[in-house]
Write a structure and sequence with these properties.
The complex is a heterodimer. By secondary structure, chain A is mostly beta strands. In chain A, β9 and β10 form a beta hairpin. The N and C termini of chain A lie far apart (about 35 Å). Chain B starts with a strand and ends with a strand. By secondary structure, chain B is an all-beta fold. Chain B is globular. Chain B is built from no helices and eleven strands. The model of chain B has no long low-confidence stretch (mean pLDDT about 95). In chain B, the strands form two sheets. In chain B, strands 2, 4, 5, 6, 9, 10 and 11 form a seven-stranded mixed β-sheet that branches. Chain B has a four-stranded antiparallel β-sheet with strand order 1-3-8-7, with no helix packed on it. The chains are: A mainly beta, B mainly beta. Chains A and B meet through β4, β5 and β10 of A and β4, β5, β9 and β10 of B.
C-alpha cells in the first residue's frame, strides 16, 4: 500500500517557472523525504524534513511540512529542463520497523525549454 | 563501494523459471531495502534487512519471493516460478541507522515472458 499521495500526477511547465507538488499521508511520521527519479531507474534523495520542522531549503528546493494536515509540498524554483523527472514523497512512519519508507505514486514533471 | 550496485541491470526470463537479483550496498550501511516498482507507480516495499536478519518482510507478495543477506553486506532477492506479473523494476537501497535518506541502486528491470 502507498501511504503518500502526490498531487498533481503530472505537471508541465516552461523553463524558468516554479513547480509545486503536494503530498498527503495518513499516519504519524518521524520524517518525510522527497526523491527524484529519471528514466524509471534509481531514485535520488533530495531532501529530508523531520516531523518537528515546518520548512526546509536546499538550493532551488523548498519543502514544507504540516503535520496537522498530514501534508507536505515541494517547490522547485526557476526550473530547468534538467529538472524533468518524476518526484516522489516518502514517509518514515513512527510505527514502521527501522527506517522503512513508504512511497507515494509520484508527480511527473516536464520542464519545456 | 561508492554507490549501491545492482546486477544484472536487465533480466529477461521465461515464465516458470527461477531468478536471482543481486544488490551490493554502500560499505558500512547496515540497513538494506528491496522495493519493486511497476510502470507509472511508486516503489513498493518488499523487505528490509538490519545486518544479516530480515527485520520486516511484510512486503513480500507470496512465498515465491525470498531474500537473504548472509554476511550483512550483499543481498540476493530470489524469485521462484516466475510469473508475468512479476515483471517490474526491482530496486535496492541502503542507509545508515534510522532517520537518514536512502541511497538507491539503478535497479534491475525484470521481464517475464
Amino acid at each position: 500500500s502507498q501511504q503518500g499521495e502526490e498531487d498533481p500526477q503530472a505537471l508541465s511547465i516552461q523553463e524558468g517557472e516554479n513547480a509545486t507538488m503536494n503530498c498527503s499521508y495518513k499516519t504519524s511520521i518521524n520524517n518525510l523525504q522527497w526523491y527524484r527519479q529519471n528514466s524509471g531507474r534509481g531514485l535520488v534523495h533530495l531532501i529530508l524534513i523531520r516531523s518537528n520542522e515546518r520548512e526546509k531549503h536546499s538550493g532551488r528546493l523548498r519543502v514544507t511540512l504540516d503535520t496537522s494536515k498530514k501534508s507536505s509540498s515541494l517547490l522547485i524554483t526557476a526550473s530547468r529542463a534538467a529538472d524533468t523527472a518524476s518526484y516522489f514523497c516518502a514517509t518514515d512512519a513512527i510505527k514502521a520497523a527501522g527506517n522503512k519508507l513508504t512511497f507515494g505514486g509520484g508527480t511527473r514533471v516536464l520542464v519545456k525549454p | 563501494g561508492a554507490g549501491v550496485s545492482q546486477t544484472p541491470s536487465n533480466k529477461v526470463t521465461e515464465k516458470g523459471k527461477y531468478v536471482e537479483l543481486r544488490c551490493d550496498p554502500i560499505s558500512g550501511h547496515t540497513a538494506l531495502y528491496w522495493y519493486r516498482q511497476s510502470l507509472g507507480q511508486g516503489p513498493e516495499f518488499l523487505i528490509y534487512f538490519q545486518g544479516t536478519g530480515a527485520a520486516d518482510d511484510s512486503g513480500l507478495p507470496n512465498d515465491r519471493f525470498f531474500a537473504v543477506r548472509p554476511e550483512g553486506s550483499v543481498s540476493t532477492l530470489k524469485i521462484q516460478r516466475t510469473e508475468r506479473g512479476d515483471s517490474a523494476v526491482y530496486l535496492c537501497a541502503s542507509s545508515l541507522d534510522r532517520g537518514g535518506g536512502y541511497t538507491f541502486g539503478s535497479g534491475t528491470r525484470l521481464t517475464v515472458v
